[in-house]
Amino acid sequence: MRRENKNIDNRNRLTPEAFEQEFGKLKIPAGKSKEQIWQAVFEKINSEKQVQIIPLASTFLRIAASILLVLGISSLVFLFAMGNVTVIVPRGNQVVHFLPDNSEVIINAESELSYNKNRWFLNRNVKLNGEAMFRVVKGSRFQVETSSAKTSVLGTIFNVYSRKGITTVSCIEGRVRVVATKSKQEVILTMGDETKTRGGEMERSIKVNNSNQRVTWTQGDFYFSNTPINNVIEELERQFDVDIFIDGDTNRFYTGYFSNKNLNNALELVCLPMNLNWQVNENMIILKENK
To answer: Parallel, antiparallel, or unpaired: how do β-strands 142-145 and 124-135 relate?
Structure first.
């Protein structure tokens, strides 16, 4: 049986001499030599025999690499695009907020604090618009960004006031580094020191006799020293969620105190020293100078 198959194969196979004889009968296109035709035939035969074999292990490696790439991209999206936290405190309120490392922030009325909880242990960074007192747990650098300054600490207690392009930083305990965003001028504050930036420029640094008085607002008590009356009125509006209008001279300065526990008492403490009368109509108050 094997011998018969072998004979069949030999009968179907052309010897080189026979193939050459048959090839010689073909009509060769003009401009083509016999050698060129041979070369073309062999290239055609070889190309048909070429089969690309992809090792199975290589395929698995490529799939695994693709999956890891997708997971890596997804993780980066989750880390940098997700996890944003924004705390908005409306007028008439104060909020105590704890950050992911258990640092405590007391946020004043009409203020906004934002940070990313997913990146927190890589970068302890918060943004503030308004006023807040920070009691920072020791660890990596902790930074507060405002419109005109960056405040950095490792672990301390400090107060940041940032409104209308003005940032005032008061150090209650420890050490605080403040850098003006525009001029890049910096100052190191210790307990009792205070610095002020305006429009990204360092304006002044002073020593405060009673630094704790700077954060009495966290207990609802507000102290002012030679402060423009408009700033005092804005604080009254924030604490009591009212709108106040002055019918009179606003280029005046106030030194004194009020508490946010009672609106009428607060108006007395502010208006009487300034020789002002007031009328309350629901959430609107009009101040007028005594004639």
So the answer is: parallel
DSSP string, 50-72: ------HHHHHHHHHHHHHHHHH
Cα 56 from chain centroid? 44
Is 0.90 surpassed by the pTM of this model? no
HSE (side-chain half, CA atoms, 13 Å) at 232: 28
Asked if 20 and 26 touch (Cβ cutoff 8 Å), the reply is no
The whole-angstrom separation of Cα 151 and Cα 266 is 32
Give the pLDDT confidence score for residue 207 in this predicted structure.
77
Closest by CA position to 239, among listed 213, 257, 266: 266
**Amino acid type, 84:** N
Structural contact between residues 133 and 106, judged by C-beta atoms closer than 8 angstroms: yes
Predicted local confidence at residue 138, as pLDDT: 92
**Dihedral pair phi/psi, residue 76, rounded to 5°:** -65, -40
Length of the chain: 291
Q: What is the mean pLDDT of each run of 10 residues along the chain (291 residues)?
A: 45 53 55 60 53 58 66 56 92 97 97 96 95 95 96 94 94 94 93 92 79 83 94 96 91 95 96 93 88 73
Rounded CA gap, 237 and 218, in Å? 16
The amino acid that residue 250 corresponds to is T
What is residue 42's predicted lDDT score, i.e. its pLDDT?
Answer: 55
Q: How far is CA 53 from CA 8, 64, 134, in A?
A: 32, 19, 64
Cβ 60 vs Cβ 68: under 8 Å: no
Q: Which two tokens stand for residue 291?
A: 């004639």
- Helical (H) or strand (E) element with 176: strand 175-180
